[in-house]
Amino acid sequence: MHGRNNPLPPVVQHLVKGCCTHEDRKDGTVRYKVTGRHFKGVTDDEGNTIPEGEVRLDPWIVLEFVAQAIAVVEELEAGNLLFSRSFSRGHRHGSEGGDAVTARFSYSHGQVACSAE
Fold this sequence. Notes:
Elements: H1 10-13, E1 20-24, E2 30-34, E3 37-38, E4 54-55, E5 60-62, H2 64-76, H3 85-89, E6 103-108, E7 111-116
Antiparallel strand pairs: 1-2, 2-5, 3-4, 6-7
């Protein structure tokens, strides 16, 4: 758990739409990359911590089903963040952003399926 009310680590909480890209390689394979932010040890020139972190220089290499899941979340979320407060906290009706969406992801035979409630 990464916080009292949010089990997502900061690097996941700050993923934005368009963070996942793919590269078609010469050998015919596809490489999926996720670009995000990191926070530990991020400081300015005077050594002050930068709370918003910075973009990672090296993206994470992920499997195709992760890229598919990110694409589904991009469709579910209205804002720029993949996991807004409403998505990740399952907030209550009447708070900012509207009703909460509960999504369940499953992986079978190379495909990601998502059901929203």
